[in-house]
Predict the 3D structure of the following.
Amino acid sequence: MDTTVPQRFVVPIGPQHPALKEPGHFEFTVDGEQVTGASVRLGYAHRGIEKATEGRNWVQNLYLLERICGICSHVHATAYCLGVEKLAGVTAPPRAQAIRLLVAELERIHSHLLWLGVAAHEAGFDTLFMYSWRDRETVMDILEALTGNRVNYSANLLGGVKFDLTPELTDQIYAGLELLEERTHQYVDVVTSDATLLQRTRGVGVTTREQAEELGLVGPTARASGVERDIRAEAPYAAYSDFPVKVVTATAGDLEARFVVRLQELFEAYRLIRAVLEKLPPGDLQARMPRKIKPAETISRVEAPRGELFYFIKSNGTDQPERIKVRTPTLCNLASVCVLAIGSQLADVPMILAGVDPCFSCNDRMVTVYSGDTDHTQWTWKQLRQYGIDYYRR
Amino acid sequence: MNAIQDLLTLMFFPGGLFVLALGMSYEWIDRKLMARVQNRVGPRWFQPYADIAKLLVKEEVIPADSNRLLFIALPILALAGALTAALYVPLAGFDPLYSFKGDLIVTLYLLSLLTVCTGLAGANTTDRFSLVGATRTLTQLFSYEAPFLLAMLGPAVAARSWQINEIIADADGQWLLIVQPVGFVVALIGLLGKLEIAPFNAPEAETEIVAGALTEYSGRGLALFRLGRHVELVVGLTMVAAFYMGGVNGLPLFILKTLLLLLILVGIQSLVARLRIDQTVGLWWRWGVLLVLAQWLALVIWEGVQA
């Protein structure tokens, strides 16, 4: 062993690690319990979906893109539908837009409750984890009753939605919201007053407003640092212009603020859902969509539970897209983990990581870096598939 | 004849197998209660037995760059320490099997053997999670051990004896936790630290360092370490119940009192988040040691005034 060079003690987290339920790889250099360096490597769950969309027609892609994320499948479909509708010059009927909002907010409730459980588990507070996941079943049941599915709700269609609300469903949603609202009050109480949990969250992983803006944070993570950034309010889509959102922010920027912001957003979601149920516009559920779309390009932005979800869609006059580019919120937030981890305790790292509510499989991209004068070729789907097979055969 | 009887006592009842069975039953109660508190179903009664049986038959992987002898010997030593400690406490309401002057100190050190072995086992491998876990285990040992020891010596000072038998006899069924509440609380919370359960489970915080010091252990070694922990749970509960809750005369009283303590432990661990290791150390040295020392001082002065 060379004693002149100081040994680096690296603690790897992932791709297989109890703290991460999805594959991502983080390397934290530690000095005792102090973290002195951090790096991230992604790409373990790359599925080539963007490329795959180019070989499928507009309708087929809806089902493919919904499967980018298992937690926020509805917002992906919504972003795609809104974009494609914009390209085709079609507007979904108001009732469909309201139902899109309804499902999106139900999904936000389920996602935030899921996050609460995961974050509590990272802090070693398993009772809160079990309770929040138990209560999350309420909203999962509602989603299942509404759409027939617990994960990929498949509520969207190009030009509208598939499902309508019945009086029984409305009653079930009201009853569920009542229970959840009561439980959420208790969770807010717990995360702002429990002494052991506060020791792990208050003042930990503080992101200042400047840092948040510099790192380009999005969603609740940014809002916890006082950045008022919410697509639902800035550029209302679906029915958000009829049912305006109050943006929830906090100023502390620590993990406690992230807990509070996400929980307060739950109240906002309950309010929105109630408003939609009370004033659901009558009318059709679907507008007619053309099969082919003339060459054009557009962007579509929606607010996923984790932050801004961005779609770029380009059509070429056929029934297939020319290019679809997806930017998911986790990708924007992940850089902050590497910045915040440095200087913190090793024990706080999983908490900081969970604090941005990472979602890895929607994150993974394949980037081919061209250097100098190498041949700029475009890979076909077949080549890409072969590359994948060859890569893992080695 | 006597030798055979001794052997039976050591191997089966109330030493040996009986202690192991009792330990696993208490482990089950702990897990089941915890699950019910958390709104889960929880394991069935034979789950700890099944876990141990499964681990015992599984292949044990010995890491190439660890000391083989230490790797195999440490779990055995840990379990032996816990089992030996069980011989000196009034297990299941019976009189301690063996007793001599100063056996309290010996028992307390035998109980620490498990933690020391765990720490050494972690340091014996080159696994990064194990090394961090070993550091934390030993750091934690140095934080709770002194206050726990002082808390256990409280009743000893009152009884003017360092023999477990005599201390219990001296208390004569009185609940010492009324006159020494600080000692009781510190002893009980010290037990949480000893057994590495929440909020003192930083040494094996799975979301940070996988299984801590025991990450590299599988199969038999892991089974022995876990058995050692189960036994230590019972021995620890017995000691606290015997010293602070008016002794454990007879099986019904033993079960009642230890289960009551276990219930308190489950309550604590289900209500708290995990403390960071620096917070654990801070808690013990800033509060635990000072409080228990203050009580000690009061106790010594009181004894002096009486004498």
